[in-house]
Amino acid sequence: MERKIVNPWTWQDQFQYVQANRVSGAEEVLYCAGQTSVDENGAPVHLNDMGAQVSQALDNLETVLNDAGFSLADVVRLSYYATDIDAFMEAGGVLGPRLEQAGCRPASTLLGVTRLGFPGLMVELEATAVK
């Protein structure tokens, strides 16, 4: 598989994402359901704590990826759904370094939403991975 990052500008680099990933020769694609801050039984955890929820959602995403034989480094698209954009941006200290350490440079979208599936949940991550 060949992956080429497409960045006509540099401003997005500070946010740990890219404008596009061009992929050719991929053998497998994994479309992940949105991952939130829930425990192994699906019960919401870290209610109303954006930083902790981002971390838990990333943990859950990595669990799904690993179970399918992928890693965060294979993620080419990562969408964020947040009930509080300002709190999400403040939680960048949790998100950015973790993605960078994993070698994850996804094309991303951040969407502000009114509510997620369970009250108290503030963020949901939806990923596409290729290898």
Give a description of the structure.
The protein has one domain: 60s Ribosomal Protein L30, Chain: A. With 131 residues, it is of the alpha+beta class. It has a four-stranded mixed β-sheet, with helices on one face. A two-stranded antiparallel ribbon has the order 1-2. It has helices at residues 50-67, 85-90, 92-102, and strands at residues 2-6, 20-24, 29-31, 75-82, 107-112, 123-130.
Overall pLDDT, averaged? 95
CATH class identity: Alpha Beta
Order of helices and strands: EEEHEHHEE
Shape: globular
- The end-to-end distance, rounded to whole angstroms, is 6 Å
Count of runs of 4 or more consecutive helical residues: 3
For the record, what is the CATH homologous superfamily label? RutC-like
CATH names the topology as: 60s Ribosomal Protein L30, Chain: A
Number of domains: 1
Query: What's the alpha carbon Rg, rounded to whole Å?
Result: 14 Å
Class by alpha and beta content: alpha+beta
Largest sheet: 4 strands, mixed
